[in-house]
Amino acid sequence: MITVPEGFGAGLGEGAAEWAATLPRLATKACARWRLTPDGAVMHGLCAVVLPVRRADGHPAVLKLTWVDSETEHEPLALRLYDGNGAVRLLDHDEELGALLLERLDRHSLDDEPIDLAVGVIGELLRRHRGIPAPDEIRRFRDTVEDHPAIPGRLLGAAREVAQRPMGTMLVNQDLHYENVLRGDREPWLVIDPKPLAADPEYCVIPLLWNRFDELDGHKGLTDRFLALCDAGELDARKARDWTLYRAVANWVWCLEEGVDDLAVICADIAQWAAST
Questions:
Q1: DSSP helix/strand/coil, 91
Q2: DSSP string, 106-154
Q3: Contact residues for 170 (Cβ-Cβ < 8 A; gap 6+)
């Protein structure tokens, strides 16, 4: 049915390699359950494989098999809450298989578009998705900043101060970025792969800064994109700055511990920018 990409699942966590080995069987079971016919090559990201399929009536769709953890477990719920409004439509879900049947979209993403257009589209999607209360099942914010000798104490302290403030309880996609917005047929652009969190809408800004970071003209470019995102998404710039500082420091710690050097440098730059803004 499918061939698992070599090395897929590495680094996902305990049991991931064993799960990856079962993907051909899971795909076969999902296709049998939903009467699907494979219709293209397998694609994959960090934690899921996607198989283009056709349904029994001939309509195109995709079968997504996801490694289920605390960040991905409520993706189906988030998609149901979006109900196709600015997001890929969930056609069916099998919790036992970790399988989602989704409408098929074009592989062309906002990452392929000029940044000004991409920011405008993201802003519209943020406005459309704001105001949805997060159900109790959705993960709540938890402070994860730990000490690290390479990070200045003033930045660690500033991040911890932000984390003590009251957090909102709206449905927020904490991994919204340009590659996760694809071209669609019924709407021009649709969000995929939401990682839902109960939070302030401003919590979602930083992935839109560290992605396509190489296109920024130093701190001036960072400020310009940040303000453009806040304006397009009708976000509170002060709150967005504070949560960007927090997430930059938290991810900086994680990157240093995991040896993700390139992103660590970017997080350090964003943290220092946010602290001085």
A1: strand
A2: -S-BGGGS-HHHHHHHHHHHHHHHTT-BPPTTSPBP-------TTS-HH
A3: 130, 131, 132, 133, 134, 198, 199, 200, 201
Per-residue pLDDT tens over the stretch 56-98: 999 999 999 999 999 999 999 999 999 999 999 999 999 999 9
Active site includes 69?
no
At residue 140, what are phi and psi to the nearest 5 degrees?
A: -95, 155
Q: What is the topology classification, in CATH, of domain 16-103?
A: Phosphorylase Kinase; domain 1 (3.30.200)
The ranges assigned to domains in the chain are: 16-103, 110-276
Which residues are within 8 A (CB) of 220 and not within 5 positions of it... i.e. 6 or more apart? Answer: none
Give CA separation, 17 vs 9, 10, 69, 257, in Å: 6, 7, 14, 22
- Tokens at residue 216, please? 């920024």
- pTM for this one? 0.95
- The single residue listed with the structure tokens 């989704």 is 102
Task: State the catalytic residue, choosing from 175, 185, 236, 261.
Answer: 175
